[in-house]
Write a structure and sequence with these properties.
mainly alpha; two-stranded antiparallel ribbon; 19 helices; disordered N terminus
Length: 424
């Protein structure tokens, strides 16, 4: 019944769009050519209508609300699983992985630093709504709504657990990736999250061989190292993890009092379960040792921040070469003979644009100045994150039960099935 209603709504919207399109055709007819030329179909698909974009937002809200209910109240792993499959089909294969909350990071960054760019309501909604849900209910988006996470979640077969220091080291990579993505988006260089999305080619059944190969590689690796992209690269997951640490309500392993049966200890394929820490562990000797390290790491935070900012500033020339205008200006300065190379499309396109070489150099200089400031911010951000990361290694709280780590838990509900305690 619900499926028929959904199909009916989509059909009505498509008919409305078809009517608008026909009116546009009558008002702006195609030009007549006497040479027999046939106008090709556009390679880029038509923009999605405003109505359907709002519908996407409604679907996202519905999935997140239902996911929060299934995880926190219903405590149903099966319900979460089927909801995630729906999200994979709708947001992944039907919507071709776009619009994407992960890629929306770049839209937000560009809208902040470029006054000429106006972010769409849909992109802003897809960026903010999962963060708001994470602040109250944990990473519900990762477990139920994200097609990139779901497609990896479904292939987990025999997950292995890596040493803690390896997981923590790999977990720092998203910090660097997030910083670079924001820098390149803010300077108008590129949307690297979208360009190097390993699953977009699978969702669209089309793409470069290298990216499809990368997506398949992630899925094969994910059979043993569960959700590799989510845990090692995803920049949006990093932000969700920060928000989820402060979640008011969060998925719990046991519905009531933990009986210390330890059945859930190895139930999480993502190593997100924290084991109990007894009060006796906080001996005077251990406390003094951790206090000294805490003071040292706390003092290192401003040092690492300043050092990172300095390194980022010094790296701005290298980073700015990713921008096409800067790369083209350097190429024409270092190899002026290429101006006569008719096979170099970049140079020939520039020569035909009517812009002078001096204008190109001036624009490249302005862009490089942005990278100088952005590189300082990027380096300072990475240094600050490194300092906080070190500080967290000596900060812990006493735990008497097995609990999911609020920042790392994907709210998939697997651990709940291992708990024998009935809800009282």
């Amino acid at each position: 019944m619900e499926r028929n209603i959904l199909i009916s709504v989509l059909v009505i919207l498509l008919l409305l769009l078809a009517g608008d399109y026909n009116m546009a055709q009558q008002r702006f007819p195609k030009p007549e050519f006497e040479s027999g030329y046939e106008q090709p179909d556009p390679a880029t698909p038509e923009p999605r209508s405003v109505e359907l974009e709002f519908f996407d937002v409604i679907v996202l809200l519905a999935v997140l609300a239902l996911g929060a209910w299934l995880a926190l109240r219903k405590r149903s792993r099966k319900g979460i699983l089927w909801l995630s499959v729906f999200s994979l089909v709708y947001f992944g294969f039907y919507r071709n992985g776009c619009i994407c909350s992960i890629g929306a990071i770049q839209n937000v960054a560009l809208s902040i630093f470029d006054p000429t760019y106006a972010i769409s309501f849909t992109a802003l909604a897809f960026f903010l709504i999962p963060l708001i849900f994470a602040l109250f209910f944990g990473r519900i988006f990762c477990g139920t709504a994200c097609p990139l996470g779901v497609i990896q979640d479904l292939v987990v077969i025999r997950p292995v657990s890596l040493p803690s220091w390896v997981r923590k080291t790999l977990g720092f990579i998203p910090v660097i990736y997030l910083g670079l993505a924001v820098l390149f988006a803010a300077t108008g260089t590129d949307f690297i999250i979208c360009r190097y999305d390993p699953f977009i080619g699978i969702f669209r059944m089309d793409g470069k061989f290298l990216m499809i190969f990368l997506g398949i590689t992630f899925l094969l690796l994910g059979m043993f190292f569960a959700r590799p992209y989510c845990r090692v690269f995803c920049p949006y997951g990093l932000i969700l993890g920060w928000m989820s640490r402060f979640s008011r309500w969060h998925l719990t392993i046991t519905p009531s009092e933990c009986i210390q049966c330890k059945l859930c200890k190895d139930s999480c394929p993502f190593d997100a379960i924290e084991i109990p820490v007894e009060k006796e562990y906080r001996t005077p000797e251990v406390s003094r040792k951790h206090l000294r390290r805490f003071v040292l790491y706390l003092a290192l935070i401003p040092v690492l921040t300043l050092l990172g900012g300095w390194i980022g500033t010094r790296s701005h020339i290298f980073l700015s070469r990713a921008h096409p205008d800067v790369a083209l200006a350097e190429l024409m300065i270092t190899r002026p003979e290429l101006k006569a190379d008719i096979d170099n499309l970049d140079i020939q396109t520039f020569l035909q644009s009517g812009k002078s070489f001096d204008q190109l150099v001036e624009e490249a200089s302005v862009i490089r100045g942005r990278f100088r400031r952005g590189g300082m911010a990027l380096g300072g951000f990475i240094g600050l994150a490194l300092g906080v990361f070190l500080l967290n290694q000596v900060v812990f709280r006493t735990r008497e039960d097995y609990e999911p780590h609020k920042g790392d838990c994907f709210s998939c509900g697997r651990c709940m099935e291992f708990c024998p305690v009935d809800k009282s």
